[in-house]
Amino acid sequence: MSLSSASQVLQTVFGYESFRGEQQAIVEHLVSGGDALVLMPTGAGKSLCYQVPALVREGCAIVVSPLIALMKDQVDALKELGVQAAFLNSTLDWSEIRAVERDFLRGELDLLYIAPERLLGERCLQLLSQGQISLFAIDEAHCVSQWGHDFRPEYMGLSILHERWPHVPRIALTATATTHTRKEIIQRLALGEAKQFIASFDRPNITYHIVEKHDVRRQLLHFIREEHMGDSGIVYCLSRNKTEDIAEFLSKEGIKALPYHAGLDVARRAEHQARFQQEDDLVMVATIAFGMGINKPDVRFVAHIDLPKSVEGYYQETGRAGRDGLAATAWMAYGLQDVVQQRKMIEDSNGDEIFKRRSAAQLDAMLGLCETAQCRRVRLLAYFDQQIEPCGNCDVCLNPPKMWDGTVAAQKILSAVYRLFKERDQRFGAGHIIDILRGKKTDRVTQNQHDTLSVFGVGQDLSDSAWRSVLRQLLANHYLALDIEGYGTLALTEKSRAVLKGEEVLMLRQESERMASKSRNIMPKAKKPVISLPPEAEERFVQLKKWRLAIAREHEVPAYVIFNDATLRQIALNNPETLEDLSFISGVGAHKLDAYGEAIIEFLEEMQA
Ligand code: ADP
Ligand code: ZN
């Protein structure tokens, strides 16, 4: 393929009418030989930014991607479009590798996906130097960031591309966009001269919802049943055991669920991932080992039942919901225990001081997001240096929390912490402090004679859960600190003094009764994600889905690779009678028209009969 213009490629190969957002500017910049750094949220359409230039420019595009498990899907999807694509990674055997290398040297490839560790090997660098390269695309570029959540040491070596091929344009892409990560990418990949394209990071179709954790299995079950029964979703938890536990629990409750974590054997992991990709009603209960690069467009919810380590991670993980632009939910249940546990994990890790400090700061920002009385989206985007108006589509906006004067309550907690430390030179955790305030004579209280303290029993006016909420807010706003060396015990901070002295009024968020209660949910029912089709078209859509699944099985690719839901719905709605009619539908490119056009028209005709 040579000098065809970018929009022609977009229309004939991909079947899309026009570029979205900054895609066109990025494509033109790259086609004309410039370097680019592209920051776009998940689902915005990053792939086209290098796939179109790859087809317009002479030579083969080299795509660096850390996601070995997904390369095959990406390449399959391109092949379905009639694009000459291949990949090189450790899943191929020797003869397959030789075949790909030969195709590359003959100039028969448009795109070649390579895992970074392989790319940096001498054999591969040698190979590349013997062929013609149209561009380098570095996907998931945040993997080069040491402080990010996905650091891959191999990415550090990628600056060699610029040294060896100074005239080949490079494009680095990521959905992670803190200023810090961005700077690191630029520096480590030598992209100082690259033009930056930064899209808005808002994902307006995602509803954010954070609740207090009390009985997390029941809460999760309730959430899925109420809002996402029969939908495809991901549940994130911290430990491997828990993923298996929860998957089993959900299955028993009639929700199709599978576990996924790095400890499962490779075959099972691959099987679970393949099923998740293929099926449209499966819940994957996973550690964060799962999900990067999963480009399944119809994930309808992402639930966190443990606190993510950072806002960046949270944003990435929740971003896997609703890539198709249809309504989706990001739901999280968290409690103080999560914060304490993670602080301990940070302290016990092998990282150096800088690492620990940074991890603690990241956790802190996460806590801030959870405890905010502000729009969640405003908070989230502020983290990425972007400003928006309150969104109207998060739990805070939909159900604004009542504020109350929590100064006295705060003073009670702070003085309990102060007394314990002053009189006994000891620190205690949150649960114990609350027991003291509420006047509970637990064993620990009596053994330590804490029932003789003046603060004993001064907090009968609030419930346990209200006290926990006050405590979390004090932590989130730095009036209290977790003493890491004391294993998650509580300590005063510099800010505590003003409150203790009565020099500062503290307005706190009231935990709504309903939020604290067991099963009721404060969210309005999720808007049903799609514009509903008229009954006839709906029936066609259902039938077309069956047809699609059969074809997908035959080709051993995910269903959406054949046609995605949006395209299939449009076909069902338009009910085209000719190939020409069909060709006008978004997502039907020349190759797919060739491959499936007649089958679809016939299928639709038969349905009429
Ligand atoms: P990202 O990599 O940014 O998460 P993708 O490249 O996977 O996003 O694109 C998300 C979805 O949007 C895909 O289904 C893709 O085909 C579709 N898409 C991208 N660009 C366009 C466009 N210009 N017109 C129509 N659909 C598009
Ligand atoms: Zn909001």
TrEMBL record:
<dbReference type="Pfam" id="PF16124">
    <property type="entry name" value="RecQ_Zn_bind"/>
</dbReference>
<keyword id="KW-0547">Nucleotide-binding</keyword>
<dbReference type="InterPro" id="IPR006293">
    <property type="entry name" value="DNA_helicase_ATP-dep_RecQ_bac"/>
</dbReference>
<keyword id="KW-0479">Metal-binding</keyword>
<dbReference type="Pfam" id="PF00270">
    <property type="entry name" value="DEAD"/>
</dbReference>
<dbReference type="InterPro" id="IPR010997">
    <property type="entry name" value="HRDC-like_sf"/>
</dbReference>
<dbReference type="InterPro" id="IPR014001">
    <property type="entry name" value="Helicase_ATP-bd"/>
</dbReference>
<dbReference type="InterPro" id="IPR018982">
    <property type="entry name" value="RQC_domain"/>
</dbReference>
<dbReference type="InterPro" id="IPR001650">
    <property type="entry name" value="Helicase_C-like"/>
</dbReference>
<keyword id="KW-0413">Isomerase</keyword>
<keyword id="KW-0347">Helicase</keyword>
<keyword id="KW-0378">Hydrolase</keyword>
<keyword id="KW-0067">ATP-binding</keyword>
<feature type="domain" description="HRDC">
    <location>
        <begin position="534"/>
        <end position="609"/>
    </location>
</feature>
<dbReference type="GO" id="GO:0016787">
    <property type="term" value="F:hydrolase activity"/>
</dbReference>
<dbReference type="Pfam" id="PF00271">
    <property type="entry name" value="Helicase_C"/>
</dbReference>
<keyword id="KW-0233">DNA recombination</keyword>
<dbReference type="GO" id="GO:0003678">
    <property type="term" value="F:DNA helicase activity"/>
</dbReference>
<dbReference type="InterPro" id="IPR032284">
    <property type="entry name" value="RecQ_Zn-bd"/>
</dbReference>
<keyword id="KW-0234">DNA repair</keyword>
<keyword id="KW-0227">DNA damage</keyword>
<dbReference type="InterPro" id="IPR036388">
    <property type="entry name" value="WH-like_DNA-bd_sf"/>
</dbReference>
<dbReference type="Pfam" id="PF09382">
    <property type="entry name" value="RQC"/>
</dbReference>
<dbReference type="InterPro" id="IPR027417">
    <property type="entry name" value="P-loop_NTPase"/>
</dbReference>
<dbReference type="InterPro" id="IPR044876">
    <property type="entry name" value="HRDC_dom_sf"/>
</dbReference>
<keyword id="KW-0238">DNA-binding</keyword>
<keyword id="KW-0862">Zinc</keyword>
<feature type="domain" description="Helicase ATP-binding">
    <location>
        <begin position="27"/>
        <end position="195"/>
    </location>
</feature>
<feature type="domain" description="Helicase C-terminal">
    <location>
        <begin position="216"/>
        <end position="367"/>
    </location>
</feature>
<dbReference type="Pfam" id="PF00570">
    <property type="entry name" value="HRDC"/>
</dbReference>
<comment type="similarity">
    <text>Belongs to the helicase family. RecQ subfamily.</text>
</comment>
<dbReference type="InterPro" id="IPR011545">
    <property type="entry name" value="DEAD/DEAH_box_helicase_dom"/>
</dbReference>
<dbReference type="InterPro" id="IPR002121">
    <property type="entry name" value="HRDC_dom"/>
</dbReference>
<protein>
    <recommendedName>
        <fullName>DNA helicase RecQ</fullName>
        <ecNumber>5.6.2.4</ecNumber>
    </recommendedName>
</protein>
<dbReference type="InterPro" id="IPR004589">
    <property type="entry name" value="DNA_helicase_ATP-dep_RecQ"/>
</dbReference>
